[in-house]
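As noted in the main text, all predictions were made from sequence alone. Below is one such record, for Acyl-CoA dehydrogenase.
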Amino acid sequence: MSPRTSAPLELLDLDSALSEEERQIRAVVRQLMDERVRPHVADWYEQGQLPARELAREFGKLGLLGMHLSGYGCAGASAVAYGLACLELEAGDSGIRSLVSVQGSLAMYAIWRFGSEEQKQRWLPAMADGEAIGCFGLTEPDHGSDPASMATRARRDGDDWVLDGGKMWITNAPIADVGVVWARTEDGVRGFVVPMDTTGVSTQEIRHKMSLRASLTGEIVLDGVRLPAAAQLPEAVGLKAPLSCLTEARHGIVWGALGAARDCLETALAYAVTRTQFGRPLAGFQLTQAKLADMTVELQKGYLLALHLGRLADAGRLRPEQVSVGKLNNVREALEIARQCRTILGANGISGEYPVMRHANNLESVLTYEGTSEIHQLVIGQRLTGLNAFA
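Prediction:
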């Protein structure tokens, strides 16, 4: 008979810090992952595919798309509830959480926060239902961590705008119906709501990825794209607007990375108590228990950090540099947990039969996107010292 094990997040009774509603939301998303994603995600990852539209409609039915926004068909859930959903989504796969967070925290949030009433009515209900897919065009081929140097331009031509340039590493781009695209104008950086079937817009899926393979990533090319004046996001002025969208999305990453780490740790724990070497279970060796203990401590610390940031967000007091602390710590620790879990599984750690290497590969992308570790270190450093060390 196998020894009784304890789930990693049960050690400190962290569920007691959640409301009954928050636990119910988490349970619903976890069940969805168990039924709809986990049986198939290894194949999606291996094949570099994702039934994104089908999944988006299912997520829309549960109110997961833009769930922390209010009105326009959005659920109006708390920041903590949204974070718990992200945790469960990424426990399935980082690509699944990326689909939801890019839709809700980047594309939908940008329209919800900075858009006109006409833009909100046109797009948000359809996006909340999963009938319309959105993407967020900020990163460029030569400008990732330094969006202020973006090369995409928007110029006025009569009452219209004309956009030229390109965006790279854009989640959902290959299937998106609408893109929130950021461009430099003579008045600074502005945002535009771009229907992706507009003449001059083309996309190409990025292939041969070693990470986030169960996610649709693409390049957007803008060649003389003519848009009416009404396409501009009226309240988005300057680079602060897209950066605020990134802050919104990073909060989901703070939680989501913990989901990948938890799934790895639960897998390694179950493996260690059943796999026998030298006449006893792997879990019976001191070195293995030391690894499991250290990883569990870091997972719980990250969870407490995420929960604290979520409560601050719900109180309207969350600051960007605080989100940087969460993103820096939780993604970095999640990646280390995935790597350690892989050592416990030995050769099986690289097998697609187990989720550990898939999570580890995915977290290499999560470590980089929406702010590299170095960028978040500089954000925190600037807050501590009052000095800008970005350039």
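The first strand starts at residue 70 and ends at 71. The chain has three domains: 8-129, 134-239, 241-385. These features were considered when defining construct boundaries for the mutagenesis experiments described in Section 2.9.
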